[in-house]
Description:
Blueprint: E1 2-5, H1 10-21, E2 26-30, E3 45-48, H2 54-63, E4 68-71, H3 78-83, H4 86-105, E5 109-115, H5 138-157, E6 160-166, E7 168-170, H6 188-196, E8 203-206, E9 218-219, E10 221-223, H7 224-240, E11 245-250, E12 256-257, H8 258-269, E13 275-278, E14 287-288, H9 293-299, H10 308-321
Helix pairs in contact: 1-7, 2-4, 4-5, 6-8, 6-10, 8-10
Bound molecules: nicotinamide-adenine-dinucleotide.
The site of nicotinamide-adenine-dinucleotide has 27 residues, from helix 1, strand 5 and strand 7.
Amino acid sequence: MILVTGGAGYIGSHAVKALLQKNCAVLVFDNLSAGHELAVPEGAVLVKGDLLDPGAIGEALQRYPVTLVMHFAAHSIVPESVQDPLLSYRNIAGTVNLLSAMRQAGVQRLVFSSTAAVYGEPVKLPIPEDHPLAPTNPYGQSKAWIETILAQLHRSTGLSYISLRYFNAAGADPEGELGEDHHPETHLIPLVLKTALGQRDKIYIYGRDYPTADGTAVRDYIHVTDLIEAHLLAMEVLQEERAVQGVYNLGHQRGYSVLEVINAARKVTGREIPAEPAPRRPGDPSILIAASEKIKRELGWRTRFTALDEIIATAWAWYRRHPGGY
Length: 326
Ligand SMILES: NC(=O)c1ccc[n+]([C@@H]2O[C@H](COP(=O)([O-])OP(=O)(O)OC[C@H]3O[C@@H](n4cnc5c(N)ncnc54)[C@H](O)[C@@H]3O)[C@@H](O)[C@H]2O)c1
């Protein structure tokens, strides 16, 4: 059985669906603080619990025959974590509780959801995995520290793990059943599409004076289906080999500017999408693009959604069917 923490959230729910399609038994552990019960695909067992409660996660791992964990659960709203860093640092506490419960239950395999935010302002582009880690916000710092904890456990207890550093996750289940429904929403593509739906008056463009072709910040958008494919490959390696330690970027090695995203969304939706310039947000790097050769070379990862229009079109299809979310 595969334990998916945060399996009621945006990316975790897509993982649950993919695992069920591969005939894996799935246990979801989620406190529903940001997730949705309706996002948990039918066929998975849902335990409502908080990773900050060591007893709850300990009990779940004692009760179900889990062999591998995909750990998505985290508070991940960056602006909130800048205001209240403990929101991010509690992710470390939750992860330590999870790792203790795994050790007690003899579960030694983990796929961890890390982030491009561990790198901070890049000194080299595209960003390779061995780029210095200098996070500029508590969220990125918490993920970097968790990676350190995982490396130490690997050395001392033989924990087998793969940490996947996602760049900007985007898009929705191509079958239209699952999508991104965050409150508050802070990600660009959902905000642009909610503007297209008329749920917001306009989209703010934070910074028009970055050293990029059109002056707006550039990010590497990766479709959630492709992210999950990487998790399935990581799972295979962890199941086939012992004492695995892997850290991989998940991105396309291709960036799009905020303006390019807005223009692509205008094309996909056929709607106007008013946009207004606003000052830069502190700590927002100008360009984040992943070097993504390592996972292609070592795990044979291939991406299905390479065009920005396609990524946006899957998200748009979901928002049109679910304008109020789940
Ligand atoms: N969305 C992105 O672009 C992106 C980029 C990089 C990394 N990540 C990471 O990927 C993971 C999933 O992101 P997402 O966008 O799906 O987030 P999400 O907020 O949609 O999902 C997280 C889920 O974890 C649950 N959760 C949070 N704290 C918990 C706790 N203490 N105990 C139990 N459940 C808890 C929430 O209820 C939610 O269902 C996170 O770890 C995030 O940091 C996301």
